[in-house]
Structure formats: C-alpha cells, structure tokens
Amino acid sequence: MALSPLTRGRTLDHVAAVYDALSPLMLFGQEQRMARPCLQYIRESSVHAVLDVGCGTGTLTLEIAAILAQRGGTVVGVDAAPKMIAVARRKAGARSNVRFDVVAAEALPYGDESFDHGLSTFFFHHIDFQLKVKALDEAFRVLKPGGSFVIVDVDTPTSLFGRICAWSGYYLFKQEEIRENIEGKLRLAIEKSLFGSFKRVAHYQGYVSVFQLSRADY
Ligand SMILES: C[S@@+](CC[C@H](N)C(=O)[O-])C[C@H]1O[C@@H](n2cnc3c(N)ncnc32)[C@H](O)[C@@H]1O
Asked: Looking at the whole model, is its pTM more than 0.85?
C-alpha cells in the first residue's frame, strides 16, 4: 500500500473499513441529494477530465466515472489516506476511466491546466485555514482556464437544526477545522485563494452549502 503523504489534514485511514456504512448516518441519508449539483454539472457540461479532491472511498468519483464513460472522459480521485484509496480502488474494479491516487490536496502532483473541472465533497472541514487556501490554489493551478470547481461542505449554519448539526459535529469530533467552516472561514479561504470569489448555488439542512468557483478564462 502507498505511504501516507505528509499532511496536517485529518485523514480517515482509521475508519476506512466502515466509512461507507457510517457516512449516510452522519448526513441523515442526504448525501445523494447534497452531491446532486456536482453530478448535474458534469452531466450537463461537456467536461472530459475531472478531479475529485478528498475523494474518500470514491463513491461519488465512481458515479462521475459512469457519466464520463459515455463521452470518453476520465476522473481522478485523490485522498491522503491510503486505506480510503484502497477501498476506492477495490470498488472501481476494472473500470478504465477512473484512477485513484494517494495524494495530499495541498501538493497535487499534476501539471498546470490538466483538468476541465474539479470538485470536493465534505473534504474542506478536514483541513485548517492555511491548508484550505493552499489546496484551493492547487486546484486552481491544475484547472484549465475557464474550468470550474464545486465544493460541498459544512458552512455557517442558517437554521436551528443546522446549528445543532454543525456544532454537534464540532463537539463530537473536537475538530477545529469544522469550527472554522461554521465561522465562515471556508468562504474566507476561497476569497484569499487564486479563485478569489464564489457563488453559493445551494444550501442543505441549514449547514451544508454548495459553492461554485471559476478559474476565469483569460
Ligand atoms: C469526510 S471525507 C469525504 C470523502 C468523500 N469526498 C465523501 O464525500 O464521502 C474527507 C476525506 O478527506 C481526506 N483528507 C484529509 N486530509 C487530506 C488532505 N490533506 N489531502 C487529501 N485528502 C485529505 C480524508 O482522508 C477523508 O477521506
């Protein structure tokens, strides 16, 4: 198995074997609905080369691979946890248009302008503010001009239910990176990064937002 890349990010090797069973419970079975904007964008656009950052066990990456297979496109899923990637690779079987790499999001080993589109679901609350900016800058670098990047993640809560869910996550996992997202630091990191701005295109359960970022054409 590949070695873990050095990162301060909270990697999930310790739950790799049970992640697929636990994750729907954590999100009240809403994960498909929350990921829908990501899939919809890929379905409706003509993107060919896609990057999934912090892909975990690759469930969404494989759905993307199925869409892209119809137009000869490919998707790369990256995660810093070798055991999560091992599960993803097992699930991928012999599919030829998907690759999973053990890689830290803040140090992507891909050339400039390699991808048409990128996305990330529930990854940014696993890294601190500095790494958020670094990972966003890396995503910007590997995107082609005109490409977009979609983020689904914990955001500043907008309802009582949202506040309860978001703060429970923070207290349960004692995860400062979740507090950062609750306090709006993911938005701040996007604004500080090379992307510079975002559009919030959806909001779920009062605490999960979908942000669309663009690498402006020039
Ligand atoms: C909550 S999971 C999300 C997985 C998947 N995107 C999903 O929606 O189910 C967050 C993932 O981020 C990974 N991670 C943490 N720090 C990372 C880093 N610096 N670079 C890449 N992945 C990292 C963890 O190993 C974990 O698999």
From this structure: yes
